[in-house]
Amino acid sequence: MNARVRIFGIFGGLALLGMILILFEARPRPTPLINGERLANAMARYTKDLHSRGEALPRTITLDTLVGQGYLSAEDTKPLQGVELIFHTDAADTNPNMLLVEARMPDGQMQAVLADGSVQQFSPSAWAAIQRNVGQPQHGADPSQPIGSP
Question: Residue 88 class from Cβ within 10 Å (0-12 exposed, 13-18 middle, 19+ buried)?
């Protein structure tokens, strides 16, 4: 094989690699469903404001509450339109089965994040049974303290 063919093959391979990289980089990037940092900051500001007014921390905080009281904009939560999102402030890390977050999807399915970090999916009937049989214990986070406080 002569040197010209080898050089042509090398340059051809590099050109092909360059085209693949350009196409790979040009593809659209998926946008995050919701800005988690903005959501966490909104929750922290909300609970801090409750604490500064001397109000007890509720057992649950809905995403609608955070939007309705101006801690998040409707634009911030637009990807979750139709999803009912509830954050549980009464979860204790001593019980891995306690709910941290529950989400009712537009089709009625339930998603839940448990204190052990797992994500579970439930049908509406299975969710109703869990709510009847388990429930959150009455002990949990200190309602007199804002979320994120020591």
Answer: buried
H or E segment and range at residue 72: none
CA distance 94 to 47: 22
**Block residue for tokens 């999807």:** 105
Picking from 100, 91, 104, the residue whose alpha carbon sits closest to that of residue 118 is: 100
pLDDT digits (tens, 9 = 90+) for 4-13: 666 666 666 6
Task: Encode pLDDT of 113-126 as tens digits.
Answer: 888 888 888 888 88
Distance, in Å, from the CA atom of 81 to the CA atom of 100, rounded to the nearest integer, reads 20
What distance in Å separates the CA atoms of residue 144 and residue 90, rounded to the nearest whole number?
11
What's the Rg (C-alpha) of the chain?
24
Question: What's the N-to-C CA distance of the chain in angstroms?
Answer: 72
Q: What is the pTM of this model?
A: 0.65
